Amino acid sequence: MNNTEEIQINQYLRDIFDEDREIRIKAITQLGEIGDELCLLELKEQLHHVTFERDALISSIIKLKDNLASNN
Questions:
Q1: Residue 27 pLDDT more than 90?
Q2: pTM to 2 decimal places
Q3: DSSP conformation letters of 32-72
């Protein structure tokens, strides 16, 4: 890996934490193309956060739907 690739990878690793969803998606996609083992570990770690957030969203939706249904 050359210096330019290292700089790009480091920028993409920072970009996966950006507030802009499109920037995060682009960074994730690019890391899948040019990343290394460290990138693989970081992407796996991020997947855990997304999974936890998704699980919390699903749980909240179910609870809210149940609460709304019981109030009607």
A1: yes
A2: 0.76
A3: HHH--HHHHHHHHHHHHHHHHHHHHHHHHHHHHHHHHHHH-
Q: List pLDDT tens digits, range 29-67.
A: 999 999 999 999 999 999 998 999 999 999 999 999 999
How many domains does the chain contain in total? 1
Find the domain containing 36 and state its range.
Answer: 3-71
Nearest in space to 27 (alpha carbons), one of 47, 7, 12: 12
Q: Which residue has the tokens 């920028």?
A: 11
CA–CA separation, 66 and 68 (whole Å) = 6
Q: How does DSSP classify residue 20?
A: -
Per-residue b/e over 11-28, b at no fewer than 16 CB within 10 Å? ebbebbeeeeeeebeebb
